[in-house]
Inverse folding.
Protein backbone atom coordinates (compact mmCIF):
# COMPACT_ATOMS: atom_id res chain seq x y z
CA UNK A 1 0.00 0.00 0.00
CA UNK A 2 1.40 3.37 -1.01
CA UNK A 3 0.29 6.63 0.51
CA UNK A 4 1.01 10.17 -0.58
CA UNK A 5 1.78 12.67 2.17
CA UNK A 6 -0.13 15.94 2.30
CA UNK A 7 3.15 17.84 2.33
CA UNK A 8 6.73 16.70 1.85
CA UNK A 9 8.80 16.19 4.97
CA UNK A 10 11.35 18.93 5.50
CA UNK A 11 13.37 17.18 8.21
CA UNK A 12 15.87 14.51 7.21
CA UNK A 13 15.35 10.90 8.22
CA UNK A 14 17.73 9.63 10.89
CA UNK A 15 19.97 6.56 11.09
CA UNK A 16 21.98 5.72 14.22
CA UNK A 17 24.37 2.78 14.18
CA UNK A 18 25.16 0.60 17.20
CA UNK A 19 22.75 2.46 19.50
CA UNK A 20 22.06 -0.76 21.42
CA UNK A 21 25.66 -0.97 22.62
CA UNK A 22 26.64 0.38 26.04
CA UNK A 23 23.13 1.06 27.32
CA UNK A 24 22.99 2.68 30.77
CA UNK A 25 21.94 0.49 33.68
CA UNK A 26 18.49 1.04 35.18
CA UNK A 27 19.80 2.10 38.61
CA UNK A 28 16.28 2.36 40.08
CA UNK A 29 16.11 -1.45 39.84
CA UNK A 30 19.26 -2.57 41.73
CA UNK A 31 18.21 -6.23 42.00
CA UNK A 32 17.96 -6.54 38.21
CA UNK A 33 20.40 -6.26 35.36
CA UNK A 34 18.26 -4.06 33.13
CA UNK A 35 19.68 -1.56 30.67
CA UNK A 36 17.75 1.01 28.65
CA UNK A 37 18.39 4.04 26.52
CA UNK A 38 16.49 6.23 24.11
CA UNK A 39 18.01 6.55 20.67
CA UNK A 40 15.51 9.19 19.54
CA UNK A 41 13.80 11.49 22.05
CA UNK A 42 10.85 13.28 20.49
CA UNK A 43 12.75 13.99 17.25
CA UNK A 44 11.55 17.00 15.26
CA UNK A 45 8.71 17.50 17.77
CA UNK A 46 7.38 13.95 17.49
CA UNK A 47 5.33 12.62 20.42
CA UNK A 48 7.37 9.40 20.29
CA UNK A 49 10.61 8.14 21.78
CA UNK A 50 12.41 4.97 20.78
CA UNK A 51 15.42 2.99 21.87
CA UNK A 52 16.67 -0.32 23.21
CA UNK A 53 15.98 -2.38 26.33
CA UNK A 54 18.33 -5.15 27.43
CA UNK A 55 17.80 -7.58 30.29
CA UNK A 56 20.15 -10.20 31.72
CA UNK A 57 19.05 -13.08 33.93
CA UNK A 58 18.57 -12.22 37.59
CA UNK A 59 16.53 -13.84 40.36
CA UNK A 60 14.21 -10.83 40.73
CA UNK A 61 11.95 -9.68 37.88
CA UNK A 62 12.03 -6.05 36.82
CA UNK A 63 8.54 -4.61 37.40
CA UNK A 64 7.80 -1.54 35.27
CA UNK A 65 4.73 0.72 35.31
CA UNK A 66 3.87 2.06 31.86
CA UNK A 67 2.75 5.67 32.08
CA UNK A 68 2.35 5.70 28.28
CA UNK A 69 1.55 3.30 25.44
CA UNK A 70 4.57 1.39 24.17
CA UNK A 71 5.44 -1.23 21.58
CA UNK A 72 8.48 -3.50 21.66
CA UNK A 73 10.02 -5.89 19.16
CA UNK A 74 12.20 -8.62 20.63
CA UNK A 75 15.48 -8.75 18.72
CA UNK A 76 17.36 -11.44 20.65
CA UNK A 77 16.59 -13.92 23.42
CA UNK A 78 13.26 -14.09 25.19
CA UNK A 79 11.30 -12.14 27.78
CA UNK A 80 9.05 -13.80 30.34
CA UNK A 81 6.24 -11.27 30.79
CA UNK A 82 3.59 -11.00 33.48
CA UNK A 83 0.99 -8.32 34.06
CA UNK A 84 1.19 -8.19 37.86
CA UNK A 85 -2.36 -6.80 38.15
CA UNK A 86 -4.20 -9.24 35.88
CA UNK A 87 -1.97 -12.31 36.07
CA UNK A 88 -1.63 -12.50 32.27
CA UNK A 89 1.62 -14.31 31.39
CA UNK A 90 3.40 -15.00 28.14
CA UNK A 91 6.82 -15.52 26.60
CA UNK A 92 7.99 -13.13 23.88
CA UNK A 93 10.78 -14.41 21.64
CA UNK A 94 12.95 -12.98 18.87
CA UNK A 95 10.85 -11.25 16.19
CA UNK A 96 7.74 -11.09 18.41
CA UNK A 97 5.95 -7.74 18.67
CA UNK A 98 4.50 -6.60 22.00
CA UNK A 99 2.07 -3.80 22.93
CA UNK A 100 1.87 -2.47 26.50
CA UNK A 101 -1.11 -0.17 27.13
CA UNK A 102 -0.74 2.81 29.43
CA UNK A 103 -1.27 1.77 33.06
CA UNK A 104 0.16 -1.75 32.67
CA UNK A 105 2.50 -3.03 35.41
CA UNK A 106 4.69 -5.61 33.72
CA UNK A 107 7.19 -7.96 35.38
CA UNK A 108 10.08 -8.65 32.99
CA UNK A 109 12.44 -11.59 33.41
CA UNK A 110 14.54 -13.77 31.14
CA UNK A 111 16.11 -17.21 31.48
CA UNK A 112 19.39 -15.83 30.12
CA UNK A 113 19.30 -12.65 28.00
CA UNK A 114 16.95 -10.52 25.94
CA UNK A 115 17.23 -7.41 23.77
CA UNK A 116 14.33 -5.40 22.38
CA UNK A 117 13.69 -2.24 20.40
CA UNK A 118 10.85 -0.06 21.70
CA UNK A 119 8.79 2.91 20.57
CA UNK A 120 6.71 4.77 23.12
CA UNK A 121 4.19 7.60 22.89
CA UNK A 122 5.79 9.74 25.59
CA UNK A 123 7.97 12.69 26.39
CA UNK A 124 11.65 11.94 26.86
CA UNK A 125 11.52 12.85 30.56
CA UNK A 126 9.27 9.85 31.37
CA UNK A 127 12.09 7.31 30.96
Amino acid sequence: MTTTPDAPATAPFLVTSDAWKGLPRMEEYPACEGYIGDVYENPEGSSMCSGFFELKHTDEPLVYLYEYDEMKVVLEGEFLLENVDTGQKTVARAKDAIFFPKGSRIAFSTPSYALAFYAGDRNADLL
Summary: The chain has a mean pLDDT of 93. The CA atoms of residues 35 and 94 lie 18 Å apart.
